[in-house]
Amino acid sequence: MTMTMYNINKKSCRILGGLLFIAVLVYLLQSSTFMTQKASSEATQLSDWDASNNNRSTQIDIIQQQQPANEKAFVTFLCDDVMGEATQVLVHSLQQTNTRHDIVVLVLDDVTQMVRSRLEYLGAKIINVDQIKYPWDSSSARRKGFNKACRYSKLNLWNLTQYDKVVFLDADTMVVNNIDELFGYPQFTAAVDIGGVLNTGVFVAEPNAETYKDMMATYENAPSYNKGDQGFLNYYFNQTANPLPGNYNLMIKFTHFSTLASEFVTKNTVKVLHFTSETKPWNFHFLHQREWRENYDGYLFGLWTRSLRNMRAQLEQGGLWTSTDDWENKGRVANICDRRLKSTYGRKYPRQNQFTVIITLNKPSINKQYLEHMLRMYASSKKVHQIFINGNSIKDQHGKRFSLNQAYLRSLKLRKPVKAVARGSYSTVNWKFNPIQGITTDAVYLADENIITSLEDLEFAFDLWKKNVDSIVGFKADAHSLETTTGSYSFVENLDDANRYSMISNNMFLKSDFLYGYTCIMPEEIHQYIDTYPACRDIAINMLVSGQTGSSPILVKADHVLEFEDNHPQTTRQRSQCINELSALFNGNNPLNLNSEIVSKVSPDQVLYTTPASWDTWASSIAAISRAKKSAV
């Protein structure tokens, strides 16, 4: 841990003292059952929240009911189109709470008319504002990862004097339940962030011409610990700041180390989700952000993408969003993620020392006895907790359709939970990566039916995966290479010229949560591409995992692996095309990472024992070793 020393004057001491008091007070508030002005009959249900539900009714505090609705507004701010869709999701989520108040989006000139039209269609009022000059060196701030220079322009909200009070929400927030009661809180009420400062992703403000004028006269010479608007506002309101319970600004990072924050999720009391840091639901799959673990939560990211799907559907009705009508699997993701899976899916995978086997039956006709052999083999491992079969029927050796119902599976007496999962009406190879209701292990082993690995190799690979949980671990690898003259990528079967690889093919270990990320959070355009080029599905999952975590895959040298006929043969040229075209869908970058390590089990004949040598002959002994090394090369 590094610590930075600052020169502290008397005013700074008062600031720090005030912030420390705020931090203590807010945690006392959060740990109690107290909730300011909360209606006693309100039942907040995060797990039942659905962005398409227009019938939610929430009791509003009596004090709020006595105040005119048009004197208050929710406000957000948009610099340009980069956060346009995130802002649309925010506006949509606010509308679903049946708020009585205006929703205002402050925009700069760089916001295009299309984004403005979509926001207005969703129910927002657009107000153009001038950009407020950034008081720091903007290029230096960007290099250090501080907020975009335009963010100071959110201070324009204090000039919205047509409103008595506003609640500001950053564009990377999403409202889960009605928050109209926030208008009963005093000016600059906000949740505490790390370090004791108040986070300005959600806060209450009282527009006032004199306050705005004073801010404009103050901000250029005022201190800001993060060279951003949050630092300035903490300085400006240091004597009058008020703490807000954390569930009104639930920052994902807190849910990983704070019991209080995680209980907001488990007890269904979240009001506003805040996707802080760089890792967000719309970029997690390609960002390579080193702090992704602290800022990623598959379940909460899934809530945002669900709202995104419903928001796009609403825009499509108004002719403001165009989807691919001829895609036969349109609606598949919503069917799986919003209907087939329970609303609490993905909150946790408690089993760490066992794994789930998911067998995908790609072959139209598979021998029944062969399937039973696979099931018995996997079930015999103590490290296997449960088995799922993607597909609930097969054709036996006589070509007769055979149902993999529970009665049949129980008759095998495998002593492990085994279940066949129907694929539904959608035909796609993406089903290999479907999240399945009932998975309780942190790891899954995806097994194609045409590959058999010994249990010893399988369990060794699982033990290796437990030490490298951010990676895909498997027994067959491929690589990619960059053509420097053209800037395009080529697929390389097995290892490249430098004995490296970047993808695991066919059977693989990976985190169960990556299945949910692939199916329910990753952009559906990637699913559509894989429907067109089905043999490239393993390239896509490798891109997702490496893009999200920045990790490389790990290849295991197995002693016993059998591979039968591949049902989806694909040429090297076609797979090269996949890498290039999928890279375009991953923000224009190829996220695959090369690795030169191959891991194998140690056997006695592989152990290198030392050879006795005399100091009198050290020169000749070293020369002999050097000659042996050269001959090996």
TrEMBL record:
Boundaries of every Glycosyl transferase domain copy: 355-592
Domain of life: Eukaryota
Protein name as annotated: Glycosyltransferase family 64 protein
Tagged with keyword Endoplasmic reticulum: no
InterPro entries the UniProt entry points to: Glyco_trans_8, GNT1/Glycosyltrans_8, GT64_dom, Nucleotide-diphossugar_trans
Coiled coil: none
GO molecular function: glycosyltransferase activity
PANTHER family with a match to the protein in the record: GLYCOGENIN SUBFAMILY MEMBER (PTHR11183)
GO CC terms: membrane
